[in-house]
Structures are given as structure tokens and as C-alpha cells.
Amino acid sequence: MKYMIFTKQKIIMFAVCACALALAAIIAVNTTFTAITTASSNRVIPIYCVDRGEEKICSISFDAAWGDEQTNTLLDTLDKYKVKSTFFLVGDWVDKYPDAVKEIAKRGHDIGSHSDTHPHMTQLSESKMTEELKLSQEKITAITGKPTTLFRPPYGDYNNAVVNAVKAQNMYCVQWDVDTLDWMDPSPSQMVQTVQKKLKPGSIILMHNGAKNAPEALPMILEYIQKQGYKLVPISQLIPSGEYYTDHEGKMHLGKAPE
């Protein structure tokens, strides 16, 4: 049987190695934490909702990318409840339904861009992103006579490059914090329940002009919101002007981001 003899020199060597391994592990953990923190702090987030304190104010919005069969019905309902909303239009939709664009503008609703061809913006080069923004802007402005300052990425798909491209065009990149999921054809009552659970001051509600049950659900949603004492305004009126930042949840705050 062999015995290992621990000399003073070997004991010191083992101790040094153990300390080195422990130090390496600590450095690795700290480096990972720093990398995660840095990546998180550098993330640019769109506007999902707005800090309006306790003021009961919110916005309802509609994305229009395909058909037009229900647009007038939605507009009539909004008129009935004296609500102004925001319609995000795809450039291709504008090409197909110019009269609908005129009618939306005539009735006093915001019109925002939803891109020109409804692509995944994150898969485009910077020049293509800019092209999507500019073309949709030009088409909307040509019909309404007013430039748009609002943009919503198709599919809600964004990254830093997308948000920065939008800001470079002096536009706000806008998402939502209340998703009715109307495109999945839930019942009108289910859509109302979703709003009931998630609505808060400064909320932005997402609907679609072509969703099957949107026309039936909209009156119920508007009645619920108004009964809760909320004022519904277009997104351009929900967003305060001036320097702003969005926090980790996408809530817009006026002023400079805290360091």
C-alpha cells in the first residue's frame, strides 16, 4: 500500500491551487452578472403604456393589415360612444383602401404606421427598415395631408435597431399592454374580461379592424371602460411631449432615465 506524504511545500501548493480555483469561479460569476446587467441596461424598449399617475385615461387602437369589411362598423361604434382612437395602417392596406383611410381621418382618429408591407422588422437591414417607415408615412400623408408620428411593429416584433430606426424618423414606437387577442376569435365576453383584468391608467389596448368578433365586442369594451371612469383618447394625446424614457416594463416616463 502506498501512502501520500504531505510535506509543507505540497500543502502550500494545494492551498494556492484551491484559492485560484475559487477566485476564478467568483470572477466568472461576476463577469456573467455584469454582462447580463449591461445587456439589460442597453436594451431599448418601445412604449407599452404611459405613466399618467392616477389619472384615469387610456387609449384603444386598431391594427389594419388586411380586409376592410368591418372598418365602418367600428367607426360608427366609436362615434356612438364619442371615442377617438388610433388606427395603425399598413402601406399596402392604404393602397387598397384609400377611401377608408380618408374616412378614418375625417372622423378625427389618429393614424399611425404599421409598416409598408407588414414584414418582421427585425429581419430587415437598417436601410430596409427605414424604407418601410418612409413609404408608409408617405402614403398616409398623401391621403390625409398629415404626417404620422406613431409606428407599431408588425407582430410586435422589435429589437434595438427597430426602435432606433423609428426614433430616427422622429416617430414613437408604440406597442400595447392590453391585448384583447381578438385575432384568435375569443368571444366578445372573453375580450371584455381581458380588458377588465389588465386595464390601468395609461393603458394602450390592442384590437384589429378585421377580427371576427371585434364589432360585437367593441361596444361592450367601451361601456366597461367608461363606466370605470376612464377617458379614452388617441395615443397621440396619451403620450406627453418632451424628453422621455421607457422602463423595463415599457412604461413611458417624462424626463431623463435614472442612472
Task: Describe the model.
This protein is α/β, with parallel strands linked by helices and 259 residues long. It has 2 domains: 1-42; 49-254, Glycoside hydrolase/deacetylase (TIM Barrel). Helices cover 45% and strands 15% of the residues. It is built from 9 helices and 11 strands. The chain has helices at residues 8-41, 71-80, 91-96, 98-106, 126-144, 160-168, 188-198, 214-227, 235-238, and strands at residues 49-50, 57-64, 86-89, 110-113, 150-151, 172-173, 178-179, 204-208, 231-232, 244-246, 251-254. Strands 2, 3, 4, 7, 8 and 9 form a 6-stranded parallel beta sheet that branches. A 3-stranded mixed beta sheet has the order 1-11-10, with no helix packed on it. The longest helix has 34 residues, at 8-41.
Task: List the keywords.
259 residues, alpha/beta, TIM Barrel, 2 domains, six-stranded parallel sheet, three-stranded mixed sheet, 9 helices, 45% helix, globular, disordered N terminus
The Rg value, from CA coordinates, equals 25 Å
Tell me which oligomeric state these chains represent: single chain
Mean pLDDT: 88
Main β-sheet description? 6 strands, parallel
Domain module count: 2
Total E-strand runs: 11
Shape: globular
Relevant CATH superfamily of the largest domain:
Glycoside hydrolase/deacetylase
Instruction: Output the CATH class name of the largest domain.
Output: Alpha Beta
Proportion of residues in helical segments: 40-55%
Helix-strand sequence: HEEHEHHEHEHEEHEHEHEE
Instruction: Quickly give the CATH architecture of the largest domain.
Output: Alpha-Beta Barrel
